[in-house]
Automatic annotation (TrEMBL):
GO terms for cellular component: plasma membrane. Belongs to the MgtC/SapB family. It comes from Caballeronia arvi. Keywords: Cell inner membrane, Cell membrane, Membrane, Transmembrane, Transmembrane helix. Virulence factor required for growth in low Mg(2+) medium and for intramacrophage survival. May be involved in regulating membrane potential by activating Na(+)/K(+)-ATPase. The chain crosses the membrane at residues 6-22, 34-56, 62-79. It is a multi-pass membrane protein. Residues 9-131 form the MgtC/SapB/SrpB/YhiD N-terminal domain. The keyword Transmembrane helix applies. Residues 147-225 form the MgtC-like C-terminal domain. This is Protein MgtC. It is found in: Cell inner membrane; Cell membrane. Pfam families: MgtC, MgtC_SapB_C.
Length: 235
């Protein structure tokens, strides 16, 4: 029994090292030691259930607790930075590493090795594929971007500017998300009209053409636009 236990622990250790090396080489939050500890720990917990003679039901229950525990561990490596989520792939790798450790602990070496191979291929081959997909033209992506077009002109030309914006949007065609007017900062004789539009980035050229034409209109002293990404609409 001791030899069988050692084999399971060595298998979990080896699989953890294989997965952890790839993470360590990429300088991820969870690297060689963390991944190896997760696989070895999962193996030890499951082996404990087998050593105590609790049967399949006991081993399955312990494996479920391992999954929950690794879930909390994975949550610790997920960070939100300026609207973007970082660490999800590392958390998923920890989760899969725990599954590999559980397989080693139950003596299923073949599936454990196969699982290790899948994790490694996912983090290497599919990483390259995802980078190629991300480099494709943005027109094929499901993106929504918010554009703010700001026009500054004389107070008496406010209605004229709003009409220009409405006509220009209709001719593109585009649609307003909002249209507001306010006094220009530092100059009470000027008005600032801001049009907010949500559209796909591939249509940005339409906005640029519209801004270029409006800059030559009477009553328009300056015009500018900016863009920010927004959350996509759920499917």
């Amino acid at each position: 029994m001791s030899f069988d236990f050692a084999m399971r622990l060595v298998a979990a250790f080896a699989c953890g090292v294989a997965i952890g090396l790839e993470r360590q080489l990429r300088q991820r939050t969870a690297g060689l030691r963390t991944i190896t500890l997760v696989t070895s720990g999962a193996c030890l917990f499951v082996t404990l259930g087998m050593l105590t003679g609790n049967g399949v039901a006991g081993v399955t229950q312990i494996a479920a607790y391992v999954v929950s525990g690794v879930g909390f561990l994975g949550g610790g490596v997920i960070m939100r930075d300026k609207g973007s989520i970082q660490g999800i792939n590392t958390a998923a790798t920890l989760w899969c590493s725990a599954a590999v450790g559980v397989l080693c602990g139950t003596g299923h070496y073949g599936p454990a090795i196969a699982g290790t191979g899948v994790v490694l291929m996912t983090n290497t081959l599919l990483r390259e594929l995802s980078q190629i997909i991300n480099a494709t033209p943005v027109s094929s992506a499901d993106l929504v971007r918010q554009y703010m077009l700001t026009v500054v002109g004389r107070q008496e030309d406010e209605i004229h500017i709003r009409t220009l914006l409405s006509n220009a949007m209709e001719s593109q065609p585009l649609s307003f998300h909002s249209l507001t007017s306010e006094d220009a900062a530092g100059d009470a004789s000027k008005v600032k009209v801001t049009a907010t539009v949500r559209m796909h980035p591939k249509d940005q050229a339409k906005l640029e053409r519209m801004a270029s034409r409006m800059s030559m209109e009477r009553g328009v002293s300056s015009i500018s636009w900016s863009a920010t990404d927004v959350e996509t609409t759920p499917e």
